[in-house]
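Box 3.1 A note on notation
Throughout this textbook, protein chains are presented in two layers. The first layer is the amino acid sequence; the second is a token string describing backbone geometry. Keep the layers aligned when reading.
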Amino acid sequence: MIYTRNSFVNFNYKLEDADVCFIGIPFDSTSIESGSRNGPVAVREALKNIEGYDTETGIDIFEKLKICDIGDIEVVPGSYKLTAERIKETISEILERNPEIFIISVGGEHSITLPIVEIIKPDTILDFDAHADMRREYLGVEYSHATWAYHAMKRFNLVQRGVRSFSREEYEIIKKLGDEIRGRTYLTIDIDVFDPSIAPETALPEPDGWNLEEFCKNLNDVKNLISMDIVEIAPKSFNSITANLAANIIKRILCKLVI
């Protein structure tokens, strides 16, 4: 594994003993608007500051779950190909050392999802996103934040929710997608699925997005969640509204693992 250390947990369990693995992937080289490379560090800071106790479930995730924060992958700025190789190498090693662990990856841009799922091989990818990301190529580039879902749908059952921005070409593709979530499910959350009023710090905010209630309603449909990522958080500071939202989303999902 190629990574640097920066943990948000008071006690960092060994990977072999952990229930959950947290990993940052600060890559944003194909995005029009950079800044999501700062997502992992801002989300860590937010996780340090939120309470682990969930009033709805009565669960404290930091007490209930053994968490291993392995730090950030050392990405290669400007190279999706080399970064993807490092992502796949890291995810493979994590699963070799602990096959049952729940991996939370924090981006970075949305292109990071593709190499992750290529290793995890879920039955379904559930994509919460404002954008379809279904272009065959974008600005002459085959693999980018705007094309990852096009490549993913060729190999996996891809279900998209929250999408409200797409090209005419993408529309012809996405209208053929199904909405059945089946089997081992990988959840990818682009923070721009939320309305900019509650998630303003993202690479490409779109109006008329979800609120937290709509997110939770869609999350309740997932029955066999095996891993997740959350991407496109582009904080302007450590005290970030959007990073804090992401941290609370992670908390809710971890509660879902326990109950």
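Residues 3-258 form a domain with the Arginase; Chain A fold (CATH 3.40.800.10). Helices lie at 39-49, 61-64, 80-97, 113-120, 148-153, 168-174, 212-219, 241-258.
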